[in-house]
Amino acid sequence: MEESLLIIYCSEGGRKALQKMSSEGFRLPSGVCTFELPCTGRINDVMLMETLQNGVRGIFVAGCREENCKYLDGNKRALRRIKRIKKLLSDAGIEGKHIEMQTFGPDEGKRLYSAINDFAGKVGVS
Amino acid sequence: MIVAEQKPIGEILKKLPEVEKLLVLGCDTCVTVCLAGGEKEVKVMCSAIRMADKKIGEVTGFSIERQCDREFFKEIEAVVKESDAILSLACGAGVQMLSDYFEGKLVIPGLNTHFIGSNEGAGYWLERCLGCGDCMLDITGGICPKTRCSKGLMNGPCGGSENGMCEIDPLNTECGWYLIYERLKKLNMLQNMMTNQPPRDWSRAHDGGPRKLLREDIQP
Lengths: 126, 220
Ligand code: SF4
Ligand code: SF4
Hints:
The complex is a heterodimer.
Chain A: E1 5-10, H1 13-23, E2 32-37, H2 45-53, E3 58-64, H3 74-91, E4 98-104, H4 109-123
Parallel strand pairs in A: 1-2, 1-3, 3-4
Chain B: E1 2-6, H1 9-15, E2 21-27, H2 30-33, H3 39-51, E3 58-64, H4 77-82, E4 85-89, H5 92-101, E5 106-109, E6 111-121, E7 124-129, H6 145-148, E8 161-162, E9 165-166, H7 176-186
Residues 129-132, 135-137, 144, 146-147 of chain B line the site of one iron/sulfur cluster (SF4).
């Protein structure tokens, strides 16, 4: 658990980008778990904070491109919530815990792969 | 409802004593609705304190129906007894009631209490009442001049009202008396604007210590 990184992805753009990524032969680094949500707008403060507190070092959220959310603005809401939690972590001086969200189109498997790898490097999971 | 917001987390962490057992206590009423101190905020606060580099042995979270009413304290007597200090996520009234009930237990306020207000939309609250003890909303068409007029004028508007906005902040703050004028017009009660309102009766407002309200018919 201590070494782990969690990828939360939506069942639309996020999932398709992940599928594209594996169909192109890119593999997730070890120590990475994935968790699917219908929409990244389902993400909330409690979920993020309790996941980090339970030992996960980093949470990477992959949502749909900003204008492509199936539920209109779930991804924008998630971006705002994540910004708030990042500020909470930094104001509380909590070190070694990271959150990041990026948005992807269904065809962006390679970009998702490099984004996850960059994040894994920053969090110290490889 | 009472509208409050969380103190900055850095300030809370600084205030917390290094105890063995800390209880974070939420309130399920007003401060839940304004997203400052309900069950969810308790969970987030507990996680933040546990992850922050604080020398606190154990952090427990709990939330009760109301902290401003002693009848709800019974259910937490055991958990409070076990705790060395309490971080309360209730309004100022709740924090004080908690400190009275559990005398000898250190209670730290986790919120800044702001006003009596309304929920205007997602994440937006507006002050509506100062608790003046002498309500005049019947005269002013249901809009409070003491609260909504930046100067609390009893007779308005003043010369600083322009295009419906107040001179103290013409971009964001509406002129309370302009709102009253428009409302009275709709109610066909514009004559109320011509009646001179007497100065406020401050003896009913915050004066001479805390105000008390006693109802004899309800007393034991
Ligand atoms: S303690 Fe404060 S926030 Fe809680 S119910 Fe009472 S008045 Fe409302
Ligand atoms: S007149 Fe007094 S009681 Fe009525 S809304 Fe204004 S402040 Fe509150």
